[in-house]
Amino acid sequence: MKQIISVKNLNFSYGETEILKKINLTINKGEIIGLIGENGAGKTTLLNILLGLLPSKNNVQVFGNRPGSLVARKKIGSMLQGDLVLSSVRVDEFLEEVAMQYSNSIPLEQILEQLDLKKHRHKFLKELSGGLMRRVTFAQAVLNNPDLIFLDEPTVGMDAQARHIFWELIEKLREQGKTMIITSHYLEEIQQVASRLIVLQKGKFIFQGTLKELQDRHKQTVITFTSEYEKCVFAELTGIINIEKNSSQVVIKTVDGDNTLKQLLSKYPDVSNIAVEHETLEKIFLQMTTDKEQQ
C-alpha cells in the first residue's frame, strides 16, 4: 500500500511549552483518519506541520518530500479553522481564481452544484453566514482534485442539512480513493467515516486503531429488554457492571456483551424487546480523557 505520510519521533514546542511529544505516524493511500482530542491537545499544530506551515526536520515526509514542498502542495487540499478574509470578493470569483492555479481542477459548476452554492455564487464572501463560508472553504479545499485532504473542524457552523451534504461528499471522495485527515468535535460523525482513529491528548497519541479496536479495549455494552423478573436475578450474568429497571424495562451494562447476551437468552428465554448497543466514540473518548486526567 502506498505511503502518503510518514512521521517519526516528532517533537514540537512553542518556546518552552511542549505541544507534540514523540509522535509516530504512518498514513497510507485511501485512509480516512479521524484525529480527535480536546482543545489544546495539539491537533491543529500537527496539521500545520504536515502542511508545511510550521517547521519540521527530516523526520516528517508527505508524498516522500518535506512538508510544504511544491510536489506536496500540488497534491493537497486543506480546510483549516478560520474562514476566508477576502471579504470584497464574490464566491464564484474567488473559486475561479483558485481553479486557475491548477491544471486538473474540478469544473466550477460541478463543485457549486455539489455544495448547493449556485444560488450564492454572486454574493460577496462578507455576506455569507458562518455555515455558508465553511462550504466555500471546503469547495476551495477540493477544487484542485487533491489526493490528500486536511479538514480541521470542517462542519463547525453548518446546519444539519449542510452537514449531511458535506458527509455525502466525503463518502464520494472515499470512493475515489482520496486520503483524508479530519478533526471534529462531532464524534458521532467521525465514527461513521473514519477507517482509523487517533486520539491525541496533551501532545501524545494515546490510541491509534479502528473504532472496533477502541470499543474492544473499552468494552462496555448496553443490553435493554423487557422482563417481569426482579433486576437482582440478572446479577449472576457474566460481565455485569450495572443493572437498572424501570417498570418492566431492564437496562444492563456489561463488559462482555456477547456472553452476557447468550446467557440471558439461555436462562431467560421469555425476555422480549431486546436491543444491544455498543459504546459510542464520544462516550469512550470522554472516559479515556477523564481517566488520563486522573492518573
Automatic annotation (TrEMBL):
- Please report the stretch or stretches of sequence annotated as the ABC transporter domain: 5-227
Is Transport found in the keyword set? yes
**Matches recorded under CDD domains:** ABC_DR_subfamily_A
Q: Which residues form a coiled coil?
A: none
Keywords, ordered alphabetically: ATP-binding, Nucleotide-binding, Transport
Q: Which residues cross the membrane?
A: none
| Gene3D superfamilies, per database record | P-loop containing nucleotide triphosphate hydrolases (3.40.50.300)
Q: What is this protein called?
A: ABC superfamily ATP binding cassette transporter, ABC protein
Instruction: Supply the source organism for this entry.
Output: Liquorilactobacillus mali
Q: What is the lineage of its organism?
A: Bacteria, Bacillati, Bacillota, Bacilli, Lactobacillales
